[in-house]
Each structure stands twice: as structure tokens, then as C-alpha cells.
Amino acid sequence: MSLDLMKEKGIPLDQQRFDWRDLVHVPSSKLDDDAFTRVRIILMNGIESEALRFQHACARMNKELQPALARVRRIEQHQQTLINWLLPADLSPLETTIGFEQVAIEVTASVALHEPDEYLAQVYRFGLLEDFDHLYRFSALMDRVTGADANNILQSYTDILPGRPTALEHRAPEDDLRECYNRNKAQPISKLNAVTIMGGEHQTHDYYMTIGPMFADPIARQLYAEIASIEEQHVTQYESIIDPEETWLEKWLMHEAAEIYNYYSCVTHETNPRVKAIWQRFLDYELGHLRYVLDVFRKFEKREPEELLPASLPEPIEYKSHREFVRKVLSEEVDLRAQGKQISKKPETPATRQYRDQMNSKGSPSETIAAGYQWRPGTELAEETPDIRKLQKRVA
Amino acid sequence: MKNRQLKNAKTESAEAELFFNRTGIMAHPDLSVELIRAAKKTVPSLPRDGKQIAAIRAGYLNENLPIGSAPVIVVNGSEKAGEEELSADADRMSVLLDKLGERLAFERQGTRLYEAFLQKLESAPAEHESGPSTEDLRHICNEELEHFKLLQRAISGVGGDATVQTPSADIAGVLSRGIIEIVSDPRTTIPQTLQAILNAELADNDGWQMLKDLAGELGYSDLEEQCEKALQEEQEHLENVRTWLSEMTLAEALGEEALFESDAADSEPEGERGTRKRRRPANSGSSRSKKRRKK
Questions:
Q1: C-alpha distance from residue A355 to each of A126, A129, A175, A236, A308 (Å)
Q2: What is the DSSP letter of A317?
Q3: Helices B88-123 & B167-184, crossing angle to 10 degrees?
Q4: Cα(B21)–Cα(B6) distance, rounded to whole angstroms?
Q5: Which of A151-160, B12-21, B248-257 is the least confident region?
Q6: How many Cβ contacts (< 8 angstroms) between chains A and B?
Q7: Which residues face B78 on adjacent strands?
């Protein structure tokens, strides 16, 4: 069942209430919850974080919109708090990092598969292979520095393999910019996808910038510095695919629609009933935000917003293992490179090669941490026990 | 009736699905096989020579910068600096103040740890035959606070600033981060909390022993005596925590009843068992668990 965005009323803003106890639920379980429950929590924190980021930027440029933005933004902030606080204290910053990369792989894979614009789908696949490599490097860090197994977090849904090597992902800034969709021609799903992935990547960058200094080991500090830099490149890439000619109110509307689409996807897939109830509640809140912003839109833009929104929501984001798709992309596209706004097998620009050589001139943390690394069940220190040998034979 | 049974069965099944550890490789065997097979074919982008990580670490180690400096020594409101600071006396004093600061930070934090533990125990849904009573924990908590105050007076007495975070105090704080996380997490059980507290008490015992020896070597006999008294009290804490954890772990494995039945030979007086937890003083190690530990 899909939602009709123009008919659903959701919960009015004045009935969207919180208290401090309500903001802090008992968190999810690192050990017992399905990995995709954590994936959804991390992504939705990123989506709400993007809502705040956008609404602040909008307020700074539009005095007349400030009261309406402030009102909605307060609620978004409390939604983000409630969601982010669902992560438990026993989930370490490095374990959370593994979760972030699983989000970047599985959610981007779903988006790439459902993106109707082939150029944009190519951009998503390009970014996907880079985040895929980050997962491998962080898994090596977890194994070799903390003696822990990244698959405790991934729960076997996602491969731990090299992608496009992180050391080769450093590009000159102009080679991270892409063509944007056309606001008048792009399908609504393309706009929702772009806001979703941009929000997720921006939050990933901010998270790594926050936790990078929390590590003592110089190799960990260096690896976070390197991968945070790539995440900044990814934010540059993904924000450039959004048409800058959209009006501020068009962008606000699409942000609200993207929040609805994402909560709707979460409700569709969530297996933990306690968390599912939160997604449902916030889906209703976001429908209320949309109604409110539609009125603001009509008032200030003096036109009807219907044409901007999809009649009904597209197919939800798929929260499942995209192993086969990711492997296919890996085998076919790992050698692709960016030349300006194009992605192909052609050589990279001199500016990128010069920049990369400079950044890697005193060594590459991502290469160092994963030198010779091959993930194994229970870490590379573990032996292959009979039960694991038996399991492989049985499935074979 | 049938509907209710069906509903109960459904609820139980849903709960079983929720409370299921999914971290192991066997939780998703089919997915895991795919993961393992692919990983075996990994072609790393750089071969391993075992020296790369060490080289990065060495680069920073060679910079030889400390985590922080020992505090300056204040006597009669003036800083001892220059030649005096470089003297052997100043070096000895500096080490003593650093370690006094470490214990002070530890005891202050220990007080808060036991306060949190006490609240957890008071809110625990079920009474256990084994494990600490609230009186036990309150007793230890009060002693931790007394030790903190003792150290405040001791630091001030030798010319130090009891509010300084010394390098050793900082290290102790980093070490204790996990302990605080475990004790203060509402989801952790009493035995899990005891496991964290045991780590704290083990470190604390050695800390007091070292401080006592240091005070003795440096000729602070009053301080040495005070440390000895505190050490004895900390040894009791450690003994009790070990006992409670051991008892509760066994009770968890065997069931409380089985544990107590098998200990009938301890020949406790009739009627003692039901109220035992409340009556046992904090420093009375259980003979039952002592016996078990010897096995």
C-alpha cells in the first residue's frame, strides 16, 4: 500500500509533542536487533540531520520564512534526538562506523537499482564502490587494532572486500562535481533519492569528523582523517546532482517529501515492533510537516505545489542484502574514474593525479591498515573451526 | 481460551525472534557462506609485510611527547620551581602526588560507581539469594567516600593541589570509562555490573598497595598507616565482590535452589537462607563461595 501525499494529513504540528523521557527510549540492542534496524536508525539520523542543516541554511537566506522554519525545525531536532539515541552505549564509535558504511552500501545499492536516470544511477554506483572499500579498510582497522570482528555488526549481509581502493579515491575538487538533474524534467524519485543519499553521506562525514580524534592509535586517527576527506568528496558529489535552480521552497518541499519517503520505507521493512512504532509516529509527523509546508509554499510562491510531488510514493527503499548487485558493479565498474563530470575508463585529469600524489606522498593509511588483509570469521587471528568447514560443505 | 493460547504462543514466538543474538556466523548460515567464500578470494591492494602499521606508530612514538605533565608543587602558596623542582626531593614528591592524585580520582569515581550500583540494585525486579544487599553496597560506598576525603587531606598535607588531574589520574580515568558505561547502563544485570566493579576493585587494591609502599619508602609513615587501613578495607571490598560475582554466576548456571541445596553442608542455621542476604555484613566473605573457589 502506498501513500497519497496530497491526501494524507498526518498529525498537525501543534499535536507533535515530546518530553525529555520520550526523547530517550531504551536503545536498540547491538547483539539482538537485526543489522538493518541499526542501518535504518543510522540513516534516519542522517535524514533528520539533513533536514536541520537545510532548514538552517534556508533561514539564513530567507527572513520571511524564518518563523515557519523555526517551528518545523524544532520538531525535526527532537525527532533526530529520539532516533540517534536509539543507538546503544555498548556500540563503540568504530562499531558504529561499520554500521555507517553498511548504510552507505546497502541503501545506495537500493537507490542505484531504482534510479530511473542512468547518469544518476552511474553516480550512485560510483560512490557505492568507494564506500564499499571503506568498509573493508575499517574492518581491517577493527580487526588489527581492537581485535574485533566487523561481521558481528554486519551480520553477514554485506561482503568485506576491497572496492575502488580508498587511496585512489582522492580527486581534485572539480572532479567531484557532477551534472545535476533538471528540476522541470526529473522524476520525483530522482529528487528523493538525491536528498536521501546526500543526507546520509553528510552525516557520515560529520560523524567521522567527530569521532576521529577519539582514537588513540595514530593509524586509526590517520584512517579516519583519510576517509572523512573522501566523505567530504562524496557530499560534494551528491549535492551537485541536485538542481541549484530549485527555489528554496521547492527544496524544502522535497526535503519533507524525502523524509516521508524514508519513514515510509522504514515502516515497511522494520522487524522490531518498538522501533517500527517510532517510524510510524514520525511518518505521521512528517505528513503533518508536508501539509504545513504546502501552505507556506502556496502563500509565498503563489502557485500550486502538486506538480512537484509524486501522486503516490515510489517503491520503498529495500532494506536487504544487495550482495549480488554490489558484486556485479564491483566486477564491471571498479576501474571507472571521474573526469570532470563524466565517469568512464578514461585517464583522470592532471589536477586529480597531482592532488592524489601530494596527499599520498607520505604513505596511505588505508593501504597500510589493510596490507594483505583478508577477512575471516572471528578475525584474521582465528582458525577455521570444524563447524565453519561443515557449514561451507553443507551449503555447497 | 484457545485464542488466548494462540496469542500467547504468537507473543512468545515474536519475543524469541527479538531476543536472539544475531552477531555470530551461524545466525545467517547461507549469507555467511557467501561472505566467507568471497573473502577467501580477496586480493589486497598492498601485500602485507607486517611493518607498515608499526612504522606509522613509530613515527609518532619518536616525537616523544607526554600525555601531560605532573603538577607543580605548591608550598605555602608559592610554587617550587627552578633548581628545587629539579632536585631529587621534588622528583620524589612529584611521583607521590601523581599517584595520590590517581587514587583520589579513582576513589571519587568509585563513590559514584557504587551510588549508581546501589540504585540499580534497589530497582532490581527480583531479589536474589546470592549477591550483595543494599546495605553491603552502602557500606562500601561510604568507605570509598572516606578514602577520597583521606586523599584530599593527604595531598593538601604534603603541599599538593587536590583539585589537579595528574597524568596517572587521567590514565585511571581512561581505564575506567568502560566500567562506568557498564555500571550505569540500565540494561546490564547485577552480575554484569559486578564484573565491572571487580575490575575496579582489583585495580584499586593494587593501587593502594603501591601507594602504601611508596609512602613508606619516602618516609611518610602517617600516610603509610592510612594507606594500610584503606588497603585492608579495599581487600574486603574485593573479597566480597568476588564472592557475590562467583555466587551469582553459579546461581545463573545451576539455579539458585541447586546452589543452596548443594551447600547444605555449610550447615547454616535453620531459617537463615531466606534472610541471609540482608544479614551478612559487607566484610563477611561467604564460606560457601570460598569453598567453591578452591575447587
A1: 20, 21, 11, 16, 40
A2: P
A3: 10
A4: 25
A5: B12-21
A6: 133
A7: B75
Alpha carbon distances (Å) from A86 to A30, A271, B14, B75, B114: 10, 15, 20, 51, 26
- Complex prediction ipTM: 0.90
A28-37, A166-175, B222-231, B260-269: lowest mean pLDDT where? B260-269
Beta strands in chain B (DSSP E): 74-75, 78-79
Which of A132-136, B34-38, B145-149 is the least confident region? B34-38
Condensed to tens digits (0 to 9), the pLDDT of residues A380-393 reads 999 999 998 888 88
Asked whether the beta carbons of residue A327 and residue B37 sit closer than 8 angstroms, the reply is no
Chain A partners within 8 Å of B179 (Cβ): none
Three cell numbers written together for A295: 501552505
Interatomic CA distance for residues A387 and B195, integer angstroms: 30
Q: What is the mean pLDDT of chain A?
A: 96
A368 with B25: Cβ contact below 8 A? no
B192 and B182 Cβ atoms separated by less than 8 Å: yes
pLDDT at B126: 67
Of B17, B25, B46, Cβ closest to residue A156? B25
Contacts of B180 (CB under 8 A, 6+ apart): B109, B112, B113
Distance CA A250, CA A293 (A): 10
Find residues 65-104 of chain B whose CB sits inside 8 Å of chain A. Answer: none
Closest CB from B18, B32, B187 relative to A156: B32
pLDDT in tens, A87-105: 999 999 999 999 999 999 9
- Whether A157 and B46 lie within 8 Å, measured CB to CB: no
Which of B14, B42, B186 minimises the CB distance to A161? Answer: B42
- Chain B positions touching A380 (Cβ under 8 A) are none
Mean pLDDT of B192-218: 98
Interface test mutation site (partner A, options B56, B171, B185, max chain A beta carbons within 10 A): B56
Please tell me the pTM assigned to this model.
0.91
Asked if B25 and A391 come within 8 Å (Cβ–Cβ), the reply is yes
Q: What is the mean pLDDT of chain B?
A: 83
Query: Is B39 close to A374, i.e. CB distance below 8 A?
Result: yes
* Residue pLDDT, tens place only, A8-46: 999 999 999 999 999 999 999 999 999 999 999 999 999
Which among B283, B201, B292 has a CA at the least distance from the CA of B253?
A: B292
Nearest to A305 by CA among A268, A245, A353, A256: A256
Across the interface, which of A30, A167, A395 has its CB nearest the CB of B33? A395
**Dihedral Cα B2, B7, B13, B18, nearest 10 deg:** -170
